[in-house]
Amino acid sequence: MARKVIIDCDPGIDDAVALCMALFDSRLDVVALTATSGNVSANQASRNIQAVTERLDPPRWPRFGVVQDSDSLSSATALHIHGDDGLGNIRLETSELHRQHPSDKVIVDTVHNAPGDVSIIALGPLTNIAAALKREPELAHFVDRLIIGGGSIHGIGNITPTAEFNMYCDAESARVVFQSSLAKTLVPLEVTEDLMFDISLLNDLPPEASRVGAFLRETVPFLFRSYRQNFGVEGIHLHDAVTLVAALHPEFFETKDMPGDVETRGELTKGMTVFDRRSRPENRSNMEVAVSLNKTAVLDAIMQCLRFAGQESTNA
Ligand code: RIB
Ligand code: CA
What we know:
The protein has a single domain, classed as Inosine-uridine Nucleoside N-ribohydrolase, Chain A. It is globular. Helices cover 39% and strands 18% of the residues. It has helices at 13-22, 42-56, 79-82, 103-113, 127-135, 139-142, 165-169, 171-178, 189-192, 201-204, 211-231, 239-248, 295-312, and strands at 3-9, 28-35, 63-66, 101-102, 118-122, 143-149, 184-187, 253-258, 260-262, 273-275, 287-293. Strands 4-3-2-1-5-6-7-11-8 form a 9-stranded mixed sheet, sandwiched between helices. It has a two-stranded antiparallel sheet with strand order 9-10. By secondary structure, the protein is of the alpha/beta class. The structure holds alpha-D-ribofuranose and calcium ion (CA). Calcium ion (CA) is lined by residues 9-10, 12, 14-15, 38-39, 123-124, 240.
């Protein structure tokens, strides 16, 4: 039986790689795809989830959840990393969906329809998850597990010296989610940055003849250029692909139960995730945190997913 999941994301190139993996994986039933601002604006993220799905044309299409710029409080974007359109400036076309529903409403309606059977994979800021908790205070009763990509255990950030991007963009929502009773797994930067992909990845992508291969060969090269220009490195991280593998293969990750919280007011520490690792922590653990990964197994899982997606998206 395929595992029902909602993917909440801010595409973003690494989000798009995760979507290529998830939308064709027979172990997953992506029942909803909800957009959040983050790497790109709310409107752009809403366009991107639809445009990527149209371009990939997976065997099963998810319900879409959208967000509006007017509702977005996100305090940063990552256009310098992912391009002005968030997908390496490939300017995908998309047909406007007639009836568009807000992301948080789609999340709540989806879990109400299958109480306890749906997991949420959050690949962007946690704005929609916090909004869903506001709309449905008993959300924890309806959700199997929330897998969160982001944060950092030791307080070393990427968007600031102390904060990871997804938590920084909406620290208040992240704190609401961390303090909620949702069953949570966090996949932090220490784990997602432990896997670096070099330029040989471009040769290992699915063939151009497949929809997945053609799409990835257009969008992923931009990430190599932006990592070289912004970080001076010859390689990329695919944070969201690693987070997706944590949902598919938890056995590839070592986790520890920890009490986590999020700084929301610090001038230098806004968005910093703080874990009480003292021998006698003040608060009870509220999440399991991935502390290490089996690099070979995770890399193989990503490439196997993409290979399968390539086969499934090759027109007969
Ligand atoms: O910090 C990395 C995370 O922020 C990834 O999810 C990336 O897509 C951005 O959303
Ligand atoms: Ca993301």
